[in-house]
Design a protein that fits this description.
OB fold (Dihydrolipoamide Acetyltransferase, E2P); 16 strands; 6-stranded antiparallel β-sheet; SH3 type barrels; 3 domains; mainly beta
């Protein structure tokens, strides 16, 4: 058993008789009140997220997690298909489960997929990915004031702000944490 202070993002815990993955945690000490831990949990059975408040010394049961590196292969009507490069086993995840990660998935991208009790719990993307610009307006000469940016659409459909000198067809690095432009690839 661990205390609520020990839980971190990516861990799996038992809460209300269900195994849940910790998506986010914040330790708070408001004014003259006792400290508590605010956690966002996603149930493995239902897939629903909820915000839960624990007292900082509350005991929490940690569930072991299996971490596998899977490659994104393709998307079809069934969902997003990942393949295990060691066993060539295919894992299909629904569009709802993949969520915003779909904006960064390209063919052969290696992701960490966490399994709890043989079920997929969550996907962890690399910190940055290389994506191709599919559509971008031309930068107009004279629009070179301080850090002027334009909106560009990437191959995955994500729209981000990029500097004026970036052209259609170029490869750029994008942060998966906030979807921001990091530089040319």
């Amino acid at each position: 058993m661990a205390n609520a202070n020990d839980i971190r993002k990516g861990m799996a815990i038992k809460h209300n008789g269900d195994v849940s993955v910790v998506l986010d945690t914040q330790h708070r000490t408001p004014g003259n009140l006792r400290a508590f831990v605010q956690a966002t949990l996603r149930s493995i059975k239902t897939g629903k997220s909820s915000n839960v408040r624990f007292t900082s010394t509350e005991p929490v049961e940690v569930v072991p997690i299996e971490r596998n590196k899977l490659e994104f292969s393709y998307k079809d009507n069934a969902g997003y298909n990942f393949i295990d490069p060691r066993s060539y086993e295919t894992v299909t995840l629904s569009e709802d489960f993949v969520g915003d990660a779909r904006n960064y998935l390209t063919e052969n991208l290696v992701c960490d997929v966490l399994f709890v009790d043989g079920k997929v719990a969550t996907i962890e993307l690399p910190s940055s990915v290389t994506l191709k610009i599919s559509r971008s307006p031309e930068g107009v000469r004279g629009d070179s004031a301080n850090n002027v940016q334009k909106v560009a659409e990437l191959e995955t459909g994500l729209k981000i702000n990029v500097p004026l000198f970036i052209k259609e067809g170029e490869l750029i690095k994008v942060s998966t944490a906030d979807g921001s432009y990091m530089g040319r690839a």
